[in-house]
Amino acid sequence: MGNICRSPTAEGVFRRMVEARGLNNYLHIDSAGTHGYHTGCSPDPRSASTAAKRGYDLSSIRSRRVEGKDFQEFDYLIVMDQENFAYLKALCPSEARAETRLLMEFSKKFTEREVPDPYYGGTRGFERVLEMVEDASEGFLEYLLSKDLAAVKDASLPKH
């Protein structure tokens, strides 16, 4: 929603996974919120601290709001919960290229289909979010590798 907790955590986790596999030249990774509550702000200090304990650096991420051009510039808009999913579906232009999916669709360990918002909770909530994001991000990367990325790499074209 505000792009200071779950989304920047997911951006940082996914970015590191992609870099570890040498794929950063093939994917453009960014995060955005559906609401402009915190535009221009750094991630919540609790998200940043929890991520840093596992080696993820969120310090360069700044909150922004989803824009209409995102539906054309990205192949996937990955959301954390049904509320944000519905918001993006309503905002989606008819000529959109991006496919909107729930991150937890790609989870292998968790039965939950939404990543809970940890903003009003304690430290354990941020840790749980990170665990869920790590698992589902790995699943999403595997999905991309099996579905899209092989063709992109063969063509030597950058991919969003």
Can you put this structure into words, describing what you see?
The protein is mainly α and 160 residues long. Helix content is 44%, strand content 5%. The chain contains five helices and two strands, in the order H-H-H-E-H-E-H. It has helices at residues 6-20, 45-52, 70-73, 82-91, 123-155; strands at 76-79, 99-102. Strands 1-2 form a two-stranded parallel sheet. Strand 1 (76-79), helix 4 (82-91) and strand 2 form a beta-alpha-beta unit. Helix 1 crosses helix 5 (123-155) and helix 2 (45-52) crosses helix 5 (123-155). The protein is globular, with a radius of gyration of 15 Å. The model is unreliable at 155-160 (pLDDT under 50).
What is the topology?
Blueprint: H1 6-20, H2 45-52, H3 70-73, E1 76-79, H4 82-91, E2 99-102, H5 123-155
Parallel strand pairs: 1-2
Helix pairs in contact: 1-5, 2-5
Order of helices and strands: HHHEHEH
The count of β-strands is 2
- Please report the distance between the alpha carbons of the first and last residues: 22 Å
Q: Whole-number average pLDDT?
A: 92
Structural class label = mainly alpha
Strand fraction equals 5-15%
Spatially, the strands of the biggest sheet line up as 1-2
Discrete helix count:
5
Low-confidence stretches: 155-160
Helicity, as a percent range: 40-55%
Shape: globular
What is the radius of gyration computed over CA atoms, rounded to a whole number of angstroms?
15 Å
Largest beta-sheet characterization: 2 strands, parallel
